[in-house]
Every structure is written in structure tokens, then in C-alpha cells.
Design brief:
Blueprint lengths: L7 E4 L5 H12 L3 E6 L2 H13 L5 E4 L5 H14 L5 E4 L14 H29 L2 E6 L2 H5 L5 H21 L4 E8 L5 H4 L3 H9 L9 H11 L11 E4 L7
Parallel strand pairs: 1-2, 1-4, 2-3, 4-5, 5-6, 6-7
């Protein structure tokens, strides 16, 4: 198991699905884990559930599409827990429709949460990482950011943009001991995917060579590795984890 004792990890959008699994994985590795929320009731319930498993994960209110709220979030974390050593940019939304029907509001909403958030949050932690000589940034993208998907021009553009951000920032901070990587999951058995009608879900699975959906824990295991000392030579990469559905 990766040893992250003494590290402070911020996982955006960490109270559900893949983000929740990442929080638990990093906490299990010894990190002090923090996540943000927009829905306080849901976040508090999740926090209590995590405590029953032995994990004390801090939760703070912040909208990652707001630079001001992200600035305040990190200041509060630094004051109450410590400077952020590990950042997992996981928060994301979808507003799916064909491009011809897509409104500017649907485009902006997805870009603001999925892509602008990378600037808003990373900007607050990068100076500490470079000055301390160690840091890990992992951006959670998607298989659809690699191959595209009908009805997701906004989502696909935002997720493809994530890796562009990864590659450029990785080159800027590599000599400072900071790594920056992208993780691109395929179809994972989250609540959202499991809510898809069974016949549609079966068609999705039929297109996955390993013959099943992935698990949030599998994504979290990869993120855990990328946060480790052992992953210090991995930077600027896009790690596909999709059961062979899309190979690059």
C-alpha cells in the first residue's frame, strides 16, 4: 500500500462515485483527505458513512467553477489542516445533447465545472508544491475525451482540454518535484451508469473487451499509485483505464 502519511490531499467532487473511492483510497494510505461539496446534506451523510469505515475526511463548501470560492477553500484548508500536497481534480458534470440543440448555458456550465476548475483550484496549490519540492496533481478525464461521443461536444471538449492542461503544466513543474497526470476512465459502475436502462447498459458492456464495467475502486487504485513516491517518473501522461474499449 502506498504510504502517504503526513500528506494533505484535496479531491474535488469527492462525495460520490469515483471521487468518493479516491478519497477513501488516499485516506487508507495515510493522507489527510479533504473534499468539497455543493450539497451539504449529501456531503454530511457521506462524511458520516466514511467515519463508520474508520476514515475522518474533512468536507468544505466550495463551487469549483468560482475562483473566489476556490481561493477561500484552499486558504481554509491551509489554516485548519495544512498546505495541499496532492490535488485530484475530479469534479465534473454533463449536460448532454447534440451540438445543434446545445445552448450556450449548457456549454458554459460544463466548461466552468470541468475545465475552468482546473485553473481555479490548481492555481491555489501549485506554489506550495513547487516551493516544497514535491507535489502530485491528477486530473480525472474520460474515455470520451480521447475518442469523442455523440451528444457530448461540451463534455468531450472539456475532458480533452484537461489533458492539454496536464501536458503543459507537467513540463513547467517537472524539475520542481511535481508530477501532473491525467486518468481517463471508461464506463464505471457508478450510480449514474447503473441507472441507465439494462438493455442500453448491456450494449455498452458488449463493446468492452474485458466484458464488464469498471469499478470506482480500480480507478482509485491507479490514482493512489500516481500519488506515490514510486510514481515520480510518471508525468504528463494520460492513463487509459477502460477495459480495452478504446486503445491509443
Amino acid at each position: 500500500m502506498t504510504n502517504l502519511k503526513g500528506k494533505v490531499a484535496l479531491v474535488t467532487g469527492g462525495t460520490g462515485g469515483i471521487g468518493a473511492a479516491i478519497c477513501l483510497r488516499l485516506a487508507e494510505a495515510g493522507a489527510k483527505v479533504v473534499t468539497n461539496y455543493r450539497n451539504e446534506e449529501k456531503a454530511r451523510k457521506w462524511q458520516e458513512a466514511a467515519k463508520t469505515k474508520g476514515f475522518d475526511i474533512a468536507v468544505y463548501q466550495a463551487d469549483v467553477s468560482s475562483l473566489e470560492e476556490c481561493t477561500d477553500l484552499v486558504k481554509q484548508i491551509e489554516a485548519e489542516i495544512g498546505p495541499v500536497d496532492i490535488l485530484v481534480n475530479n469534479a465534473g458534470i454533463t449536460k448532454d445533447t447534440t451540438f445543434r440543440k446545445m445552448t450556450k448555458e449548457q456549454w458554459d456550465a460544463v466548461m466552468n465545472i470541468n475545465l475552468d476548475s482546473l485553473y481555479n483550484v490548481t492555481k491555489q496549490v501549485i506554489d506550495h508544491m513547487t516551493s516544497s519540492g514535491w507535489g502530485r496533481i491528477i486530473n480525472i478525464s474520460s474515455i470520451n475525451g480521447q475518442k469523442g461521443q455523440i451528444g457530448q461536444t461540451n463534455y468531450t471538449a472539456s475532458k480533452a482540454g484537461m489533458h492539454g492542461f496536464t501536458m503543459s503544466l507537467a513540463q513547467e513543474v517537472a524539475r520542481k518535484g511535481v508530477t501532473v497526470n491525467t486518468v481517463s476512465p471508461g464506463y464505471i459502475a457508478t450510480e449514474m451508469v447503473m441507472a441507465v436502462p439494462e438493455e442500453i447498459r448491456d450494449k455498452i458492456i458488449a463493446g468492452i473487451p474485458v466484458g464488464r464495467l469498471g469499478t470506482s475502486e480500480e480507478i482509485a487504485a491507479l490514482v493512489g499509485y500516481l500519488c506515490s513516491e514510486e510514481a515520480g517518473f510518471a508525468t504528463g501522461a494520460d492513463f487509459s483505464i477502460n477495459g480495452g474499449q478504446h486503445m491509443m
